[in-house]
Amino acid sequence: MQTLNGxxxxxxxxxxxxxxxxxxxxxxxxxxxxxxxxLLGGFVAFSVxxxxxxxxxxxxxxxxxxxxxxxxxxxxxxxxxxHSEMAELMATLGLVYIIDDVSLAIWGGNPLNISLxxxxxxxxxxxxxxxxxxxxxFFILGVALVVGILLYLLLRRTRIxxxxxxxxxxRDMVSALGINVRRVFTGVFVLGAxxxxxxxxxxxxxxxxxxxxxxxxxxxxLAVVIIGGLGxxxxxxxGSLIIGLVDTYGTAYFPAxxxxxxxxxxxxxxxxxxxxxxxxxxxx
Amino acid sequence: xxxxxxxxxPGPGPSSVTAxxxxxxxxxxxxxxxxARSGGIGNQTIGPAAGLAALGAIMYxxxxxxxxxxIFENVLVFAIAAMGLDFxxxxxxxxxxxxxxxxxxxxxxxxxxxxxxxxxWAAIGIALGTVLxxxxxxxxxxxxxxGISFVIVTLAIGQILWGLSYEWTSLTSGxxxxxxxxxxxxxxxxxxxxxxxxxxxxxxxxxxxxxxxxFVRSPFGLTLRGLKANxxxxxxxxxxxxxxxxxxxxxxxxFAGIAGILYVFANQLMSPTTMNFSQDGFLVLMVVLGGLGxxxxxxxxxxxxxxxxxxxSIYVARWETLMGVVFIAAVIFTPDGIWGLLRLxxxxxxxxxxxxxxxxxxxxxxxxxxSPHDGLPV
Lengths: 284, 378
Hints:
Strand order of the largest sheet of chain A: 1-2
Largest sheet of chain B: 2 strands, antiparallel
Largest sheet of chain A: 2 strands, antiparallel
Helix content of chain B: over 70%
Oligomer: heterodimer
Number of helices of chain A: 12
Shape of chain A: globular
Shape of chain B: globular
Radius of gyration of chain B: 20 Å
Structural class of chain B: mainly alpha
């Protein structure tokens, strides 16, 4: 039961952190607004579902709207920052305030809820051990799995993926080979934002939808990239699994200090392998 | 604004007065490595005068009391935490996004100790001890990484401290927070009196400022700045970079803890919102907006941000949005913050006004507040 919960959470976290880590890996942009993007995606979906009564349109709308936001940020904000990593980090921090505050103004401070349609909104009894478990979580887990596989195929089996991976390893070389790095950057940033928005819609039935959940999500994503290694896709998968399970078990058994339980894997990884489990050694 | 004078040696001005307020007068230009690079004779008079004027204005605010005095006390409190952040970020190159967590730790240390029956002084001691202990432990982890990773790790640490304050309800009462039960006495001084407390905060602020200036100018501070400028070289010279970072981190969070203790006495209540993600960001914003690596800058930043929070929020409902916009604009247009702007202005004025080094020009006043802070002659 807890393991299933943990896996569901891991699935959501994975969707968020894979975008985060890709953006960092390719662009060296630490997007602190990633959690806020997640939240906004959920909010947009909530409104769209409210008017169309269709969850899947809402899901698509959340992802597309956030892709649009990503495009705007990447094209209109980042160019001003002249590739200074710290300036980019600071600017996205400023963005967090704006997004949080605006969504508070539009959607209010009360937790909203997105429920899944039809059979997905019901629960089923697991054949073994007689556990009743909501179908929505199986759906989320499945979607995360599919997205994970698709992303893996994209990264490992396509030309675009090869360019992205090459970009992670050596940006200057990729650009020297005549590839339009600018366009790759935009694509990756938009993809990352879309993944965050997508996760925001999927995560809403499980984690709720309110201003403040974005900070939790950001912490999860940060913990994942520290554990898995900044910029490593496989690290994001591994880190999500660890964080999802640790957080779920921590919340179940030590509810008062669940947040600090997250700290344990962080400490272990940082002490033994500061660059993350699957991260590359920093080349400064 | 809150800047005490920075006079090297006795100026023709009110030097006897500055000598008596030793803490405020002793620290000259923050981070200055070589003395008197740009100052004319006028600087030495105008500087103390401006500093004393600022002190006088603060005194007046405090004595007149009321809401404004409390706001300004908060400015000083956050200025201390922001300067601590600047010490590590501006001089050591390690920007921490977990500073508010340690501020909260100090504040919670006081109120929780008081709830458990300790007197105010003992509570302050316990709070400082807690901050030191957590800082020592967290530092081991945090300084394993640098640059962006350091920001992320400290953010995680800060968030975990926040999470504890929020979730560990048996200890912290969760969202409701804990009210302060007792303020300390020192001989005839009763710190539950508003004016006494305001002045005590001012004194602590000046002591912290003085300490930080001493740290920055010490060999340790120089090494820290060297690490920021060129770590491989310093390592090759045999400096233990990790140890320096570690000590720098612990010093930095101690100032956050001190600020937290002052915060709780000033505001009488500690709740998780004081140490949440927004607050972490605000503290970084104070430093970046004011000017990284200047110590005065964070004070200016604290003034701007706290006034924003307290005053603008009365008129503009969406003040956080406005602040986000200001933040992004600051990052884009003034990478060196208000401090950098003042320096630019000073340079511009001194080019336009050949008489700028005489005593009574405004350019001179600016010259005093805009000493170079990033030169590192190696």
